[in-house]
Amino acid sequence: xxxxxxxxxxxxxxxxxxxxxxxxxxxxxxxxxxxxxxxxxxxxxxxxxxxxxxxxxxxxxxxxxxxxxxxxxxxxxxxxxxxxxxxxxxxxxxxxxxxxxxxxxxxxxxxxxxxxxxxxxxxxxxxxxxxxxxxxxxxxxxxxxxxxxxxxxxxxxxxxxxxxxxxxxxxxxxxxxxxxxxxxxxxxxxxx
Length: 192
What we know:
- By secondary structure, this protein is of the alpha+beta class.
- The protein has a single domain, classed as Electron Transport, Fmn-binding Protein, Chain A (Pnp Oxidase, Chain A, Roll), CATH 2.30.110.
- It has helices at about 20-25, 30-35, 80-85, 100-105, and strands spanning about 1-5, 10, 40, 45, 55, 60-65, 70-75, 90-95, 125, 130-135, 140-150, 155-165, 170-175, 180-185.
- The strands form 4 sheets. A 7-stranded antiparallel β-sheet has the order 5-4-8-11-12-7-6, sandwiched between helices. A 3-stranded antiparallel β-sheet has the order 3-13-14, with no helix packed on it. A two-stranded antiparallel sheet has the order 1-2.
- It starts with a strand and ends in a 9-residue tail after the last strand.
- One of its GO terms (molecular function) is riboflavin reductase (NADPH) activity.
- This is NADH-FMN oxidoreductase RutF, flavin reductase (DIM6/NTAB) family.
- It comes from Actinopolyspora righensis.
């Protein structure tokens, strides 16, 4: 928006060429730095099958209640990208505060590849996707992959929820400013 000399707002449409956009963006704080100020929940995405894998992710959200759809964003260079694509499904474990170590583990690129990374992790196989579901989580979702959209250096995976299970009422694990934080679980009795 632009304020004109009369003090009223008016939309200004300025064509933006890729070179101009790059110049303007490089002069600003990086997107990563700005987005680190946005608090998000923490999940571990998992996929079963031949290329089974797990990955800590906070780029996850609900999309629709009818039909029940969720989305997650995964870098095209991440092992998880191939895992979801190959399996045609994925699962989501929404982490509780006491699962900080699991969040760190599934974010560590040095962990074993494939299903071996789940050895010693308390989990069970999802009945709909065969993807590992991490025990002690706040909730679990199993999803069938219904569409994939390009999103720059990431893909946006759209999944139809096949199963959703609520877990315990522990504190939620949050991520903000490059650190894990906690928030108390809402008291259902005080809900409107």
